[in-house]
Design brief:
heterodimer; A: five-stranded antiparallel beta sheet; 11 strands; B: 117 residues; four-stranded antiparallel beta sheet
């Protein structure tokens, strides 16, 4: 079945720096890739998503890139702020299993 | 304007005592999901409904059951909670997959944190 690998598991950056989180997926039929941000004790919140017909999508300081050939997608956060500190999950959807498959998460810490 | 509502937000139960968690949605989405999330882990799908069609994940224990009496409500029943069932339980919804730009996006509720004593 589909497998999603996410790296790194923890990431620490200085405020103002950029952060990049990478995910790879195994099912070439997957066609939808959301990213969720989860603060401690709260629900996962969708922050950006990308579908397989585009290679990049940007929303203010957040961008996602998708390489279908290599089967990987990445989250880019620029000008990081302390409030960006959270756990970020990538996910893959639309493959043979038909449900969201999550990566294991990246704990991002932004130091003031 | 909450879209996915879960009650209660915190639930304490005793070992072996049945418990029911509820989820309701105002989005009129066809699909509702139940996830279990333990500390520092990704959400783990337990089961989901496409309308009234129930889909169980292969590794979901029999101890977990679900009911969906109508489009808006879905319940998670834990028949005999064990210590290992202590976790955050997340409900999510999405539209039935059809052509369009909003398919597949899942919206999560705030979760119910279950403690088993």
């Amino acid at each position: 079945g589909e497998n999603v690998e996410q790296h790194p598991s923890t990431l620490s950056v200085q405020e103002g720096d950029s952060a990049v989180i990478k995910c790879t997926y195994s099912d070439s039929a997957s066609n939808y890739f959301p990213w969720y941000k989860q603060e401690l004790g709260k629900r996962p919140q969708l922050i950006i998503d990308i579908r397989s017909n585009v290679g990049e999508k940007k929303d203010q300081r957040i961008a996602v890139t998708l390489n279908k050939t290599a089967k990987h997608f990445s989250l880019h956060i620029t000008e990081t702020q302390p409030e960006d500190s959270a756990v970020y999950f990538c996910a893959s959807h639309g493959g043979s299993q038909g449900n969201l498959i999550f990566g294991k998460g990246t704990k991002l810490s932004v130091k003031p | 304007d909450a879209m996915v509502i879960q009650n209660p937000r915190y639930q304490v139960t005793q070992f072996g005592k049945p418990v029911t968690l509820s989820c309701s949605q105002t989005l009129n989405h066809n699909v509702m999901y139940w996830y279990q999330q333990k500390s520092s882990q990704a959400p783990k799908l337990l089961f989901h409904y496409y309308d009234k069609d129930f889909n169980n994940e292969a590794d979901t224990p029999d101890n977990f059951q679900s009911r969906r009496p109508n489009t808006s409500f879905c319940f998670l029943d834990i028949r005999s909670p064990g210590l290992g069932d202590a976790a955050m339980y997340l409900c999510a919804t999405s539209r039935l997959r059809t052509s369009g730009t909003e398919r597949d996006t899942q919206y999560f509720g705030p979760g119910t944190r279950l403690t088993v004593l």
